[in-house]
Amino acid sequence: MSLSQTCLHDNHVRLGAKMVDFAGWHMPIQYTSIVSEHNAVRERVGIFDVSHMGQIFISGKDASSFLSYVTTWDVNKLSEGDCRYCHILNNDGQIIDDTIVYTFSNQDYMLVPNASMISKVFDWLNLNSSNFEVNIYNKSEEFFCLAVQGPESLRLLRQYFNLSITPFKLIKSDNLIISGTGYTGEKGYEIMGPISESQNIWESFLEMGAIPIGLGARDTLRLEKGYLLSGTDFNGSQTTLESGYSWVIDWNHDFIGKERLLVQKDGEYKSLSGILLEERGVLRPGLEVYFEGEKISALTSGSLSPILKRGIGLSYLDLPIGTTVNVSIRNKQLKGRVIQTPFL
User: Fold this and answer.
1) Rg of the chain over CA atoms, in angstroms?
2) Digits of tens for pLDDT over the chain (344 positions)?
3) Pairing assessment for the beta strands 211-212 and 46-49 based on DSSP bridges
4) For 181-206, how does the pLDDT look when each residue is reduced to its tens digit (9 = 90+)?
5) Cα separation of 148 and 151, whole Å?
6) Is 190 assigned to a binding site?
7) For an engineered disulfide with 6, which of 51, 133, 248, 324 has Cβ 3.0 to 4.6 Å away?
8) Where are the domains of the chain?
9) Superfamily for 56-136?
10) Are 121 and 113 spatial neighbours (Cβ–Cβ below 8 Å)?
11) What is the rounded CA–CA span in Å between residue 72 and residue 70?
């Protein structure tokens, strides 16, 4: 089966990027090295092609009530220009996907689901829309998405667009949607619009000094900040509470999965925790975690932090912060410590 390609695919190939299969897309994992690209974003500015992400538009008289029902946040509280990170849950309170709600008006919104979840989220929205007067359109194939991230990102944004945006706000500029959002923990912005405009914006930002960044550095950047990766840190069987993201829940409204979360809230459960390796080694997803000689879990995410120069990982644990654990790497038990994320 052939892989999907973003509208900028050929640009990545020309730049010599190492291309890989990511969620069915042929995407750049790195152009030079993951560490150098990671540091470019932390210290200067990088640009990511994330056009594999989805764009689902919801409009209509009941749009805000509908989105409040199908997400963990009360969207009625959002104002025009607001962006809000939240979760979409199934009836058991388990995460279908995490997403950002973009508010154009109280009757006009956009969701950005993860690439592998676009169809599932679109179907789930339609399945639960029968009691609401809404229109739901999947326009993912019509849009590009670029993320400009790093300390110098505002300079480039002003240089190209002559505007600035505060975190988690959006501006509509002609055909473009520009938001103060990102997945790196740095100052940054995301630019979405018709595919026909992608080439010029990509090339212009490179000319202004943005460094092209692959998915490898995108992963280490988000992991240092403890951000969730869809399909890895949650795969359809974990709840929002277990993911450690209870702050995305507005308990003062009714939403799909709320009853199950209320029951879980008063009980005991494992939650996603950070592990900082205290010995030399690189953590990888799937490595087994031990406590007092017993296997208790496995890493959902793991890497070497280019900034901390230590192994970091995430795992579902029922242990207090500061607890010593061991991670098995090539049949060797390396010492680690449970810490509160973010790592950086």
Assistant:
1) 20
2) 689 999 999 999 999 999 999 989 999 999 999 999 999 999 999 999 999 999 999 999 999 999 999 999 999 999 999 999 999 999 999 999 999 999 999 999 999 999 999 999 999 999 999 999 999 999 999 999 999 999 999 999 999 999 999 999 999 999 999 999 999 999 999 999 999 999 999 999 999 999 999 999 999 999 999 999 999 999 999 999 999 999 999 999 999 999 999 999 999 999 999 999 999 999 999 999 999 999 999 999 999 999 999 999 999 999 999 999 999 999 899 999 999 999 99
3) parallel
4) 999 999 999 999 999 999 999 999 99
5) 10
6) yes
7) 51
8) 9-52+141-224, 56-136, 270-339
9) Aminomethyltransferase beta-barrel domains (3.30.70.1400)
10) yes
11) 7
Question: Which of the following CATH numbers is that of domain 270-339: 3.30.530.20, 2.40.30.110, 2.60.40.10, 3.40.30.10?
Answer: 2.40.30.110
Task: Note the residue count of the chain.
Answer: 344
Q: Distance between CA 308 and CA 224 in Å, rounded?
A: 9
Assigned token pair, 248: 């995305």
CB 306 within 8 A of CB 272: no
Q: For residue 297, give both structure tokens.
A: 């879990």
- Torsion sign over Cα 64, 65, 70, 76: positive
- The β-bridge partners of 58 are 109, 136
Cβ-Cβ contacts under 8 Å for 73 (sequence gap 6 or more)? 84, 86, 101, 248, 249, 250
Contact predicate 58/111, CB 8 Å:
yes
Chain centroid, CA 219 distance in Å: 10
